[in-house]
Amino acid sequence: MNGSTNAKASFGAIRGLVFIKIRELTTPFALARSGAVFGIALVLLGLLAWGSDDFSERYLGLIRGVFALTFLPIFCLTKGGETLRSEMKDGTIEYLWTRPVGKVELFFGFYLSSLLGCFAIIYPALLGISLVGLIQGAIGVSSLLLLWVTVTAVVASFAAISGAISSFTSKFVVFGIFYYSFVELGLGAIPNGVQRLAISYHAEQLLYGLDGSSFLDGTALGYILATGALGLAVGASLFAKSKYVVGGEKES
């Protein structure tokens, strides 16, 4: 009976964290912010297309080099641990400590909450980028599907890594940038298999198919998702074994 009760409590905690984030993301301010992100992406890409004879090439280059391989990693690595650390800093996690909920389930709930926050910014921008590409004939429907799948996997994985970092330090933004510099830029540039440790390397392999030459590299997608799953496992383990001062920062 206790097992059933605890399972329901754990699910309820996860659902509650997700519900709170959804409510936060559907406020007038949050919706206006998402609309602004969509509009900015639409205008910027539209200006790029204006009077451009090589728009398709420049469009694909921006998606790969700027949006997917630079902006996404930095944004997600500095935002993915936000919910957990906000709960710790504000002391609102105190209520959750009094519930029959495991720390692993709590960590997963924090991760989903932060992931929704990332998607609330990324998806409107991606929608604007996609519309310009379709209107200008720079990208086809099948390539757009590949783009959305790749972006979703990349965001989920980097957010998981950020969550893992936030499980042991409040300075997850600093460590996230360090991770990006060392792993994604450093190790990702080393040949002979070392570059496979970087999510960006596999994302780049997937995005090569945006020109229609291929649809989906299952191996590259698998590497990205596996890295994210490893980040979740490590983060959940660290969070479960750590001791925290209720309403404050980590004790040890």
UniProtKB/TrEMBL annotation:
Swiss-Prot/TrEMBL keywords: Membrane, Transmembrane, Transmembrane helix
Annotated transmembrane regions: 30-52, 58-78, 106-139, 145-165, 172-190, 220-240
Coiled coil: none
Cellular component, GO annotation: plasma membrane
Presence of keyword Membrane: yes
Pfam hit, one: ABC2_membrane_4
GO molecular function, one term: ABC-type transporter activity
Taxonomic superkingdom: Bacteria
Protein name, per record: ABC transporter permease
Taxonomic lineage of the native organism: Bacteria, Pseudomonadati, Verrucomicrobiota, Opitutia, Puniceicoccales
